[in-house]
Amino acid sequence: MDTGKIRIKDIAERAGVSVGTVDRVLHKRPNVSKSALEKVEKALAEMDYKPNMYASALAYNKSYQSFCILPKHESEAYWDEVEEGTMAACERFRDFRVSVKLLYYNRFATDTFEKVMDECLKEEPDGIIMVPTKIDVMRKYCDLIHQWQIPFVLLDSYMPDLKPLTFFGQDSFSSGYFAARMLMMLAPHETEIMLMKQMRNGNVASKQQENRETGFRHYMHDHFPDVTITEVNLSLDTEREQYDDILEEFFTSHPLIHHCITFNSKAHLVGEFLLRSNRRNVQIMGYDMVPKNAECVRQGSISFLIAQHGFMQGYTCVDALFRAIVLKKKVEPINYMPIELLTKENIDFYRRNNIG
């Protein structure tokens, strides 16, 4: 029998029970005797019945509200891609009344994360997507979330001790290791490389950036131990108008540096400076296919970009919550995004929306 055409009436006749009893068994409702339950389960097995989870979810007619907690960001930044993917997934599951509310925190101020988490939990959400902050703060809130049995997804940085429903993001260490390997294919004879950071009070924005740098330095230590890595901090406490002066002084005093790397999405800060100052013998490697980075790739001041597929991350986070909460399905606990290398030759073929 075609299991897609099996009706509740067919199951009831096979089991010798009422249609109402079958409906209660299928939807795991109470008031079903042990004898009737055994008859229905036997009939389901004999008929190889596979429930249509989508149809059941639609019939349930319930609304599902989740929250997505992201770092504050500028327009046209990496997190814009994540937001677009999140909203695209909500549109995809609109008939199931799935919605996601976006909240923002300052990555350098944990109290802002606590504020938005308190706001989120007051709403008693069905699910939560989070870009993590410091582990001690995360642990406090994740303990509460587990206590209230709210499924949550970690995005960007993986913290397995928090026991999330699932994680979406790159393997940061491997990504940094890969970046070093690609960079040194261009610069095998260099003696010094510039590492551009953006820090505040001595801290970088995320654990992910730290892990990328660890992977990068690991490769360099093993394969190019004599290469000097010189750091430049375009501090977030400094006015952006001063960046040109910082970079001019650096490159003037380090004329032998021809290659730079950064582990954030702001490679364009150096790339645009190189174009303005007409330094055609220096290139930078960075992350994220944001518009300003892409233009520097086209103009030749950025050699490589590593894409994180932010749109796909945002989309699949919502999809995972949908499958777990609405369809009651299991999801993979770890989902690593591809490490994709973009150059002048392929950047215009990059698919931000890589779903389906």
Automatic annotation (TrEMBL):
It comes from the Bacteria. CDD domains: HTH_LacI, PBP1_sugar_binding. The keyword Phosphoprotein does not apply. InterPro entries: HTH_LacI, Lambda_DNA-bd_dom_sf, Peripla_BP_I, SBP_2_dom. Residues 6-60 form the HTH lacI-type domain. PROSITE patterns: HTH_LACI_1, HTH_LACI_2. Keywords: DNA-binding, Transcription, Transcription regulation. SMART domains: HTH_LACI. It comes from Xylanibacter brevis. This is LacI family DNA-binding transcriptional regulator. GO terms for molecular function: DNA binding. The keyword Phosphoprotein does not apply.
